[in-house]
Design brief:
Layout lengths: L2 E3 L3 E6 L2 E6 L9 H16 L5 E6 L22 H9 L5 E5 L2 E3 L1 H8 L2 E5 L3 E3 L13 H9 L1 H10 L2 E3 H7 L4 E3 L4 H13 L12 H19 L6 H15 L2 H16 L2 H16 L14 E5 L3 H12 L3 E5 L3 H20 L5 H9 L1 E4 L10 E4 L5 H14 L5 E4 L6 H6 L7 E6 L8 E5 L6 H13 L3 E5 L7 H18 L3 H11 L5 H8 L1 H11 L12 H7 L12 E2 L8 E2 L1 H14 L8 H21 L6 H11 L9 H8 L1 H12 L10 H9 L3 H5 L3
Parallel strand pairs: 3-4, 4-5, 5-7, 6-8, 7-10, 11-12, 11-14, 12-13, 14-15, 15-16, 17-18
Antiparallel strand pairs: 1-2, 2-3, 8-9, 16-17, 19-20
The structure holds coenzyme A.
């Protein structure tokens, strides 16, 4: 077997079959040198009489993760993925794609243009471009529906979902699933079969019933999108591309797709989503340098409340053995019921099957005695948010846990340094701040107290990755990154409410901005009683000069805790329904204004968004200045994944850069004339604005 090793493409010949290996590890992103070399190799193969067929594969376990996202910011250079796909499709010599690892985006589009596709059962195939505000620009919107039918292609492309090899076979996306070790041989056999004139049998997707089904699915999707408050340009254009695939010849469809793709690349939504993608990857790198994570297989979860149950489910889903600890049999029983409840919902929605449920439950045990934690590699406590309660739990852990076990607290704001100092092994103590529901929410703040060992931090990051979470390193302070910032912009919303905007207008303005739920609707969902208890606890330490809006307390005094009590800021006459504005709440707000001598003034929706964002950005800059967050991208990753900040805007720091830091600072300075303490500008923001700089520049390694 002769091998010609180039930089990005490895070529080898096996009796007339040319194996072209994409060789740009780890993910074979289709950067320009790779595209150029593949183009040259395909052209050379076309002219080489000794080549009868071609097999395209990845050299190191991945086929390709698709386009190199970083290139979209630069001038585009031919050949494009679409040119390569056309070259493959037009090849007089059969081309077979051998798919393993990831075959995503442009990678899958190359495979779609091939004459046959084989793949391993574990390969991940998909067109995830929409998650980056793009659409497949290399023929994917035209070739996928032709291959598997538009009705099946639609959800894959519109949601950017990937499927494994087995599901791809069922869809007709793969022609054969092969053993991973024998993938190349399998592909070569398929290539020879094609040369011998044995075509692959495929279903006919051009029949009128298929076309009608596709058009109906498109119409239903258009209706669904029309009801959404915000739709990406890519989502709308994708539907148009699929329609073109059903109605136009391939050549015209490809041109249509190309134009639509270029519109998406230029969209602000793409820039925001690409920013969020890289922010998450930057945030996800352990700040503990080369420290190796400690092995974790057996985990303890203390507390079977909503948070503990969610954490247990997240861990079981990642293959960990979990022991759930509660103080007595009744509490343990409720904890198990909560876990069962989560699983029942997952089964009902089709996210879990019975076999997986059995697997998960077989790794769950429960105990009331802390001795059951003696073999745990890691323990997360999710007990009542009170320093005395937490330190008592840690004292017990100190006594029973094996040396080297990681002792984590899920506290949202308590001083983890104090918790760590209270036991004999502070180096093993870390904060793992999950967000509710913990089995769903992506954010995991990894809070690093002063004495924590590097390998414990590294373990936190490795665990987050295993759980499918987005980890963000946070320093110790009241609220860490997310809740500290949240507190301030929620206060800004309260101030606006007291000054004249209704909670309904504020919610609506922020929902139009892109939040799925405004702050008052969110408060009703999470339950007003929790915040009320915190405020009462913190009342003695509240600075006397700080403005304090009493509306939330007064709602709670009436027992209006939100959805669970049928009323909060909104009325919920029927369970599960969207709340309705409540005249009594407006009257109560009026009373508060009167009591404070405030004359209500009008806020435009734009005023509301500007103040809310200014408060957020200002506190975020202080969080950076204090070293609580390492870089602006970490704040973006945190707020997008844990606080509902619209992902397509990239994150609040990216938003601030787009708005211009000088403009944001000018807003803050003008608001400071009303309330100098609350609106004290962050020194970092002042400096960046003065220098004409951006938060984005701070993300770059110094
Ligand atoms: N373009 C440029 N860089 C990419 C990339 C892409 N399409 N896909 C991944 N990378 C980079 C990541 O930024 C990361 O770089 P870093 O180490 O410098 O931070 C590195 O490749 C590894 O990626 P990571 O996401 O950490 O690896 P993973 O194994 O967890 O996940 C994927 C692999 C392919 C599932 C994931 O990276 C992904 O979803 N990529 C995007 C795929 C895509 O959308 N393709 C279509 C593009 S239009």
């Amino acid at each position: 077997m002769a091998i010609i090793a180039q930089d990005r493409i490895q070529a080898a010949k096996q009796d007339g079959v040319l194996l072209l290996g994409l060789n740009h590890p780890p993910l074979n992103t289709l950067d320009h040198p790779l595209r150029q070399q593949l183009h040259d190799a395909l052209q050379a193969a076309a002219e080489d009489a000794s080549v009868q067929a071609i097999v395209l594969h990845g050299t190191q376990g991945n086929f390709s993760a698709g386009a190199d996202i970083r290139e979209f910011d630069q001038p585009r250079q031919a050949p494009w993925a679409g040119d390569l796909a056309s070259l493959i499709a037009a090849s007089g010599k059969p081309v077979v794609a051998a798919l393993e690892g990831v075959a995503l985006g442009g990678g899958l589009e190359l495979a779609l243009a091939a004459h046959a596709r084989v793949g391993s059962a574990s390969a991940r195939l998909g067109l995830p471009e929409v998650k980056l505000g793009l659409l497949p620009g290399g023929g994917g919107t035209q070739r996928l529906p032709r291959l598997i039918g538009a009705a099946h292609a639609l959800p894959l492309i519109l949601e950017g979902r990937s499927v494994d090899g087995k599901a791809a076979l069922a869809l007709g996306l793969l022609d054969q699933v092969c053993d991973e070790a024998g993938l190349l041989d399998c592909a070569v056999r398929k290539a020879r079969a094609l040369c011998a004139g044995n075509p692959v049998s495929r279903r006919d997707t051009s029949s009128s019933s298929e076309v009608q089904a596709g058009l109906a699915a498109l119409a239903a999707q258009r209706q669904r999108l029309a009801a959404k408050p915000h739709v990406l340009p890519a989502q709308r254009l994708l539907l148009d591309c699929l329609q073109a695939a059903l109605e136009q010849p391939l050549k015209d469809g490809l041109k249509f797709e190309r134009d639509a793709f270029l519109q998406c690349v230029a969209s602000a939504e793409h820039k925001g989503l690409a920013h969020a993608f890289f922010a998450e990857r930057q945030a996800g790198k352990s700040p503990a340098g080369q420290a190796r994570p400690r092995p974790v297989q057996r985990a303890g979860v203390i507390g079977g409340g909503t948070m503990g149950a969610g954490i247990a489910v997240a861990m079981l889903g990642a293959g960990l053995d979990v022991v759930l600890i509660e103080r007595d049999a009744a509490a343990l029983q409720s904890g198990r019921e909560r876990i069962d409840g989560i699983y029942q919902r997952q089964i009902k929605s089709g996210r879990l099957d019975a076999a997986a449920l059995d697997r998960h439950l077989s790794r769950l045990s429960a105990a009331t005695d802390y001795a059951a934690l003696s073999t745990a590699d890691l323990v997360v406590e999710a007990v009542f948010e009170d320093m005395d309660v937490k330190t008592q739990v840690f004292a017990q852990l100190d006594r029973v846990c094996k040396p080297g076990a990681i002792l984590a607290t899920n506290t949202s704001y308590l001083d983890i340094n104090q918790i760590a100092r209270s036991i004999s092994r502070p180096q093993d103590v870390i904060g793992l701040h999950f967000f509710s529901p913990a089995n769903i929410m992506k954010l995991l703040e990894i809070v690093v107290p002063e004495q924590v060992a590097d390998d414990v931090v590294a373990t936190g990051f490795a665990l987050a990755r295993r759980l499918g979470k987005v980890p963000v390193r946070a320093g110790v302070c009241d609220g860490f990154i997310g809740n500290r910032i949240l507190y301030v912009y929620r206060e800004a919303a309260n101030h606006m409410m007291e000054d004249g905007a209704s909670p309904y207008q504020i919610d609506q303005a922020l929902e139009r901005f892109g939040y799925a739920m405004g702050p008052f609707r969110t408060a009703d969902l999470t339950g007003g009683d929790i915040g009320w208890a915190t405020r009462k606890r913190k009342a003695p330490t509240r600075p006397p000069e700080a403005r304090y809006v009493r509306v939330a307390d007064r709602l709670c005094e009436r027992g209006w805790f939100g959805q669970k009590t049928g009323r909060g800021y909104y009325l919920y006459p029927e369970r599960g329904q969207r709340g309705k504005p409540d005249a009594d709440v407006l009257a109560l707000i009026d009373e508060e204004r009167a009591a404070r001598g405030i004359t209500a003034r009008a806020f435009s929706d734009e005023d509301i968004v500007r103040r809310y964002m200014a408060a957020l950005i200002n506190e975020a800059a202080k969080v950076l200045d204090d070293g609580i967050a390492l870089r602006p991208a970490d704040i973006d990753a945190a707020l997008v994944n844990g606080y509902g900040f619209p992902r397509w805007r990239g994150g609040p720091m990216k938003y601030a850069d787009d708005a211009g830091l000088a403009a944001v600072l000018a807003d803050i300075e003008s608001y400071a004339k009303e309330d100098a303490a609350f609106w004290a500008p962050a020194p970092l923001l002042q400096r960046l604005a003065r220098e004409g700089s951006t938060f984005g520049k701070l993300n770059q390694p110094q």
